[in-house]
Amino acid sequence: MAVCVFSSLLTVLCVGLYGKYTYAEACTDPVVTPASLLVEYGDPAEVNCSIPSKPETDYTLGWESKTSQPATDTETSVMWKVDSLTNWEEADGLQCFFTVGSNQCESNVTVTIYKRPDRVTLSSVSDVWVEGDQTELWCEIENVGPGHKLSVRWSRADPKHNSSTFTQFSESGVPRLGK
Ligand SMILES: *[C@@H]1O[C@H](CO)[C@@H](O)[C@H](O)[C@H]1NC(C)=O
Ligand SMILES: *[C@@H]1O[C@H](CO)[C@@H](O)[C@H](O)[C@H]1NC(C)=O
Ligand SMILES: *[C@@H]1O[C@H](CO)[C@@H](O)[C@H](O)[C@H]1NC(C)=O
Prior knowledge:
By secondary structure, the chain is mainly beta. 12% of the residues lie in helices and 38% in strands.
C-alpha cells in the first residue's frame, strides 16, 4: 500500500513537470506604436505596446523607462504615457518587454527630445568699433537641446558679405562663439 502511494506520487510529479515543460511558450517581440517619437521637451508623449494574443501561461507585458514603468499580466496591451516629458535620459532606453516564463522579448522605441532656446542674445565685446580693426561678437543661446544636434550659423545682413560659420557642439559644450 505504501509503495502504491509512493509510486502514484511520483507519477503526479512527473506529469506536473512534463506539463510545465510542454506549456513553456516562446515569446514574440511586442509591437510598439509608434516605433519612434519626436517630442518637444515638456510635451506629453505616449506609446502603445501590444501582443497579438494572450499566452496560455503567466506573462508580463511592461515598460522599461526612466519616468514611468506601467505593466500588465492580464491585458494584451499597455500604454506608456507621460504628461510632460522632461527627462533627457528617456531618449537612451525606452523599451517594451514581454516575458513568458523564462523567455523575454523586447522592442525599443527611438526617442528624440528637443528644446528650442529660451533666449538668443547677441552682444559686442567692445562698445566702439574702429574701421579696419578686428572686433568680437558674442552669441549666447540659452537652454537648447540636444547639444550634439545643434548647429549655429553666423551671417551678415548684407548678403554680398557673408561670413557664415557652422558649428557643432557636444552635449556639455557651452555655446560661446566669437568672430
Ligand atoms: C493598443 O494597441 C492595441 C493593438 O493594436 C489595440 O487593441 C489597443 O486598443 C491599443 N490601445 C490604446 C489605448 O490605444
Ligand atoms: C534595445 O536597447 C537596448 C538597451 O538600450 C540594447 O541593449 C539593445 O541592443 C537594443 N535592441 C535593439 C533590437 O536595438
Ligand atoms: C549669404 O547668405 C544668404 C542667406 O542664407 C544667401 O541668401 C546669400 O545667397 C548668401 N550670399 C553669398 C554671397 O554667399
